[in-house]
Amino acid sequence: MTSSETRATPSPSQEDYKHELYPYQGSEQFLEGTLGFIREARDGGEAVVVAVPEEKTALLRAEIPDDDTLRYVENSSVAHRPGRLIGAWQEWIQAHTAEGRPVRGIGESPWGEVRSSAEAEELRSHEWLLNKAFSAGPAWWLLCPYDTAGEGAALERMSSCHPTIRTAGRSEANGTYDPQAPFDFIPLSHPCDPYEEFVYTSGDLPALREKIATCAEQLGLDDRRLRELHLAATEVAANSIRHGGGQGVLRTWSEEHRLVCEFRDTGYIDDPLKGRSRPTRTQIGGRGLWLVHQLCDLVEIRSTPVEGTTIRLHTELAY
């Protein structure tokens, strides 16, 4: 790497969160950009948290091992579950920010191992929601490597989620960033045929759970996973009854090796971050959607004042 490629870029101010895309091709470019980023951080007395796929972690660790200022986190439990990632980052950086030390992060989703089209869309939504989640602090700097070997449209959409972009070791403002993307900016796919439909209201939760159990058992889903799905479904349906006009519609179907339970009602969720941060001990309310994200493999939420709310719970089936 030449001296011009390792020239440090100034850190964000203590009031800022910086979210940067690093497009690259192949392992050599991945290492070039990420190692430069780590070395810049160390030169500035900053800590670094790295959450990348296992094979990328091995490449980086072979060059720079863990120490007090560099932490490689094990992220397999959240990498494919976008709704859990903001809470994970909050926990990963908490120790360093509590010490008053500036923090950088390197985060790359396992795009080559994405398990469904819905997961891919939610991972991209997560990238945009990071800007909203950390806009009020704490101050830290997240670099998102992205392999450009994929389709151009996917790269364009990723770019729209990042205010800055990294090129030749330097940060630049990203002209394609969209700071106003709405909550419903990625439409849900159409339900797969055939699907079952059930209208529920107060007093119908036992029948709703029975409908889900019948569908789940036909697909080989039982025991612990079915209990978790029942708990998540009960929470969502109860919220429909309480906040969504007193009733809702359940649809169930299978797609891409997953059981999908969709809940529709006339209510409106005005905060796209609901359920993505771990509730505090003193928090009153707001724990239900966080629990749903912990119980399901994937959660899709779309909500507008006009069309109401749709929530899809995905549970992986045995292959």
Question: If you had to describe this structure to a student in words, what would you say it looks like?
Answer:
This protein has 319 residues and is of the alpha/beta class. It folds into 2 domains: 3-173, P-loop containing nucleotide triphosphate hydrolases (Rossmann fold), CATH 3.40.50.300; 196-316, Histidine kinase-like ATPase, C-terminal domain (Heat Shock Protein 90), CATH 3.30.565.10. It contains 8 helices and 12 strands. It has helices at 26-43, 54-63, 85-98, 117-133, 152-159, 205-218, 223-243, 288-295, and strands spanning 17-24, 47-51, 70-72, 103-107, 140-147, 164-167, 170-173, 196-201, 247-255, 258-265, 298-304, 308-316. Helix 1 (26-43) packs across helix 2 (54-63) and helix 7 runs antiparallel to helix 8 (288-295). It is elongated, with a radius of gyration of 21 Å.
The CATH topology of the largest domain is: Rossmann fold
Q: Tell me what the CATH architecture of the largest domain is.
A: 3-Layer(aba) Sandwich
Question: In order across it, which strands form the biggest sheet?
Answer: 3-2-4-5-1-6-7
User: Distance between termini?
Assistant: 44 Å
Shape: elongated
Q: Helix and strand string, N-terminal first?
A: EHEHEHEHEHEEEHHEEHEE
Largest sheet, strands/sense/barrel = 7 strands, mixed
Task: Give the averaged pLDDT, no decimals.
Answer: 90
User: So how many helices?
Assistant: 8
How much of the sequence lies in strands comes to 15-25%
Helix coverage percent: 25-40%
Low-confidence stretches: 1-14
Question: What structural category characterises the helix and strand content?
Answer: alpha/beta
CATH superfamily of the largest domain: P-loop containing nucleotide triphosphate hydrolases
The gyration radius over C-alpha positions equals 21 Å
CATH class of the largest domain: Alpha Beta
Structural domains: how many: 2
How many strand units?
Answer: 12
